[in-house]
Task: inverse folding
């Protein structure tokens, strides 16, 4: 404790010293500036200007705006597979499920606890059915030990119902957080000796298919459907009832023994395989050498309990387990600590508990303190029992070659499963359950993909397979070799779901019926997919296109440039910025790069307009007294320059505009007899300074952009269906075509809006734009006007700074309603200001 106190004292003293040094340095700097009087005025002028800009920003914006877009992101426990759904429902009845299916036409994904780790419960723009509220026990036969449940119930939920009757679940995972429907859909297994996957304990299922039909499936009725649904990853239909076989709850005693890996088969055959008293068993294979297994078995016993809990407390703290897991993740040293210190301490005492106690662990014991930069992930390999001696060296070499931080390898036995079409145990196998740590960045993900495919080859070389609830990195060829009955599964899926609405990232990758579809081929188009939040985040950036247009319109109307509402323009930018940030704050991952860019350009425009406020409201107003009704030729050139600039940036980045030729043009005027001579020269000099500075700044940005960024994709791609013949133009081309479906490319920026307005004249249905199902549109209308309906949501209204009778309404709407929305706006004589691409 004394050492800790001294450490805090040292940190505090160091912090005080640092603060003193900063203040003394600032004091020295100010003193030096005061000694050099030439620096005195510019230094304080700069400080005053910085404070002035900061004040303008603080007084601008809409910090009270708190509206957010509904969060429709789906993710799994790893937090590295974020997928944006179209709609999420949480049904409590079969009717809600059938109604949702029949009232939609797009893809459907089904999820429970989200413990699968590679998109197996989600798909982009899908109707997502979250089954967790569909969680009731329908029937319990205590005599026959049979229970019928809704699939959203967790194993823990069942345990609480059946434990008072001394009943226990026959087969489930180690952890009780998983839903029954999810467990059946992945054909789970556990540590149960004498059993294989869960399919052997499933007696009957009821599912709702893509056409709304209810099917009962068991081993005598619709057995082919039964074999496809169990382990079918939600691809056949929605499980709405499951009937399961139960077992008796008994007391079990923990036993353990360390065994060399080369002796493990003999040990298992002699001590575990045919031992009827063993209920649970697994062996932990120690990384990084993978040379020794600690075997942990739980045998039926009549001994006195060492724990009174029949089921583990739901609010149990897992502080110790989490911290031990953190220690083990510390590379080879952490593995040594686990093997030589943690495990000997953990297994040092006798333990006798109820079977339900040992089957009611909470997955929270594995949850790290953060998954932001690093996350924990599972993989699982199924190796024929006679091949583990030859497989382990291959596994070890791949892990060590790629520096994989393996936390634990759990060995579990499973009997064959010849029922499920996607069976992972075509013969007796040992399951290698791999728990490892990986980074969350793109480079780390690519590395995992590479070594996983290498590992898959090693698995196949031993006639093994792998578990599909984890990241689907295996190639299509590897999948087809590892799961030879997959064609039967997909044939059944095609029969019951011919449009393949039930899907997810796993099925989408390996479904042979999709490989030639346009929706699949679109992923080959470079730049097709863009982040959906961009349609909202681009609104403030586009305001800096619309505001110069307002300024040009203002000048062309003959109004005094010194009266232009520059502060209101600053306020409008930051208001739109605040609203955009609030809208995306919950629905999308934070886009730090774009947010920073918006802040930079916001500060830049605040500085520019801040200078203009200072000038135009002082000297500008003074010189405006000399203005005459008739403009000089130079002033007309300035107006033309502002119009040219506002037109240019509607289609191209502003820093590509040629500023200097306009400076030359304004000075080449010869007619000085028209208008006020004083006003003419004041405007000319001001314009020269402004455009010369912008030319220099633009050149710097152009160099920076050329050196930093790749050439941008200049098209937005759209998936649509139409039977109309649409001619291609400079801004519209057909990229892929299949029957009535087309992937088209539309030029970005301003042309995107004008082209879509033209396309609204055709009979077209848009399915997605850049892989997204929602888009933002702004409409200009009179203050009293309202544009209703068509599934659009008004996000906010803002004012035109030069005309408070005109408002800008910003709408979010489904892309399927975009063209009808454009037609409706035209009918009501409203102006579509912009359609915000991504």
Result:
């Amino acid at each position: 404790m004394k050492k800790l106190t001294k450490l805090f004292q040292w940190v505090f003293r160091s912090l005080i010293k640092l603060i003193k040094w900063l203040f003394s340095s600032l004091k020295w700097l100010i003193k030096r500036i005061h000694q050099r009087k030439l620096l005195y005025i510019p230094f304080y002028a700069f400080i005053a200007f910085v404070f002035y800009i900061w004040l303008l920003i603080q007084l601008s914006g809409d910090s009270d705006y708190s509206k957010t877009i509904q969060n429709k992101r789906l993710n799994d426990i790893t937090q590295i597979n974020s997928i944006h759904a179209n709609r999420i429902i949480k049904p409590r009845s079969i009717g809600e499920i059938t109604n949702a299916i029949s009232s939609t036409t797009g893809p459907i994904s089904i999820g429970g606890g989200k413990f699968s780790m590679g998109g197996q419960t989600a798909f982009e723009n899908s109707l997502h059915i979250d089954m967790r509220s569909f969680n009731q026990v329908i029937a319990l036969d205590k005599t026959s030990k049979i229970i019928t449940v809704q699939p959203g119930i967790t194993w823990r939920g069942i345990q609480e119902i059946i434990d008072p009757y001394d009943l226990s679940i026959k087969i489930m995972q180690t952890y009780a957080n998983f839903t029954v429907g999810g467990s059946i859909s992945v054909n789970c297994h556990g540590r149960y000796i004498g059993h294989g996957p869960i399919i052997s304990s499933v007696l009957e299922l009821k599912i709702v298919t893509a056409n709304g039909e209810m099917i009962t499936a068991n081993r005598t009725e619709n057995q082919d459907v039964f074999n496809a649904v169990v382990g079918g990853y939600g691809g056949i239909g929605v499980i709405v009832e499951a009937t399961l076989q139960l077992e008796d709850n008994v007391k079990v005693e923990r036993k353990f023994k360390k065994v060399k890996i080369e002796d493990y088969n003999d040990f298992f055959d002699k001590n575990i395989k045919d031992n009827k008293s063993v209920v649970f068993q697994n062996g932990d294979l120690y990384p990084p050498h993978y040379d020794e297994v600690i075997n942990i078995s739980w045998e039926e016993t009549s001994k006195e309990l060492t724990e009174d809990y029949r089921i583990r407390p739901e609010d149990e703290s897992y502080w110790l387990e989490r911290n031990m897991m953190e220690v083990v993740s510390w590379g080879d040293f952490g593995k040594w600590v686990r093997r030589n210190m943690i495990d000997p301490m953990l297994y040092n005492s006798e333990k006798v508990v109820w079977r339900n106690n040992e089957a009611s662990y909470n997955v929270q014991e594995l949850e790290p303190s953060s998954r932001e930069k690093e996350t924990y992930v599972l993989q699982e390999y199924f190796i024929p029992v006679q091949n583990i001696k030859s497989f382990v060296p291959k596994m070890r070499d791949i892990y060590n070659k790629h520096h994989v931080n393996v936390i634990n390898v759990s060995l579990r036995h499973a009997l064959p499963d010849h029922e499920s079409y996607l069976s992972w145990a075509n013969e007796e196998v040992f399951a290698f359950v791999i728990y490892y740590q990986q980074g969350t960045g793109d480079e780390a993900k690519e590395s995992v993909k590479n070594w996983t495919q290498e590992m898959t080859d090693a698995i196949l070389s031993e006639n093994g397979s792998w578990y599909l609830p984890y990241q689907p990195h295996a190639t299509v060829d590897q999948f087809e070799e590892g799961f030879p009955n997959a064609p039967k599964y997909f044939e059944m899926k095609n029969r019951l779901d011919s449009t393949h609405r039930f899907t997810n990232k796993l099925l989408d990758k390996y479904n042979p019926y999709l490989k030639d579809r346009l929706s699949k081929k679109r992923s080959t188009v470079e730049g097709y997919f863009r982040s959906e939040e961009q349609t909202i985040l681009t609104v403030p950036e586009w305001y800096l296109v619309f505001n110069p247009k307002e300024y040009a319109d203002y000048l062309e109307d003959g109004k005094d440039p010194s009266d232009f509402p520059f502060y209101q323009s600053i306020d409008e930018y930051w208001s739109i910025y605040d609203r955009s940030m609030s809208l995306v704050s919950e629905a999308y991952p934070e886009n730090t790069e774009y947010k920073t860019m918006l802040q930079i350009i916001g500060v830049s425009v605040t500085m520019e307009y801040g200078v203009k406020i200072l000038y135009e409201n002082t000297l500008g107003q003074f010189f405006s007294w000399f203005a005459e009704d008739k403009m000089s030729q130079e002033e007309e050139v300035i107006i033309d320059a502002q119009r040219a600039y506002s037109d240019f940036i509607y289609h191209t980045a502003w820093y590509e505009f040629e500023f200097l030729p306009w400076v030359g043009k304004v000075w080449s005027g010869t007619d000085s007899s028209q208008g006020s001579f004083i006003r003419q020269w004041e405007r000319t000099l001001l314009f020269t300074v402004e455009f010369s500075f912008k030319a220099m700044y633009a050149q710097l940005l152009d160099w920076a952009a050329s050196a930093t960024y790749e050439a941008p994709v200049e098209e937005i791609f759209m998936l649509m269906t139409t039977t109309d013949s649409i001619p291609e133009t400079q801004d519209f081309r057909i990229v892929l075509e299949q029957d009535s479906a087309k992937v088209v490319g539309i030029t970005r920026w301003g042309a995107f809006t004008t082209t879509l307005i033209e396309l609204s004249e055709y009979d077209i249905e848009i399915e997605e734009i850049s892989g997204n199902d929602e888009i933002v549109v702004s409409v200009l209308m009179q203050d009293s006007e309202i544009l209703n309906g068509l599934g659009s949501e008004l996000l906010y209204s803002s004012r035109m700074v030069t005309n408070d009778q005109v408002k800008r309404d910003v709408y979010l709407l489904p892309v399927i309603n975009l063209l009808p929305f454009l037609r409706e706006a035209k009918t009501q004589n409203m102006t579509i200001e912009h359609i915000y691409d991504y």
Summary: The chain is about 40% helix and 20% strand. The first helix runs from residue 2 to 35. The CA atoms of residues 185 and 232 lie 5 Å apart.
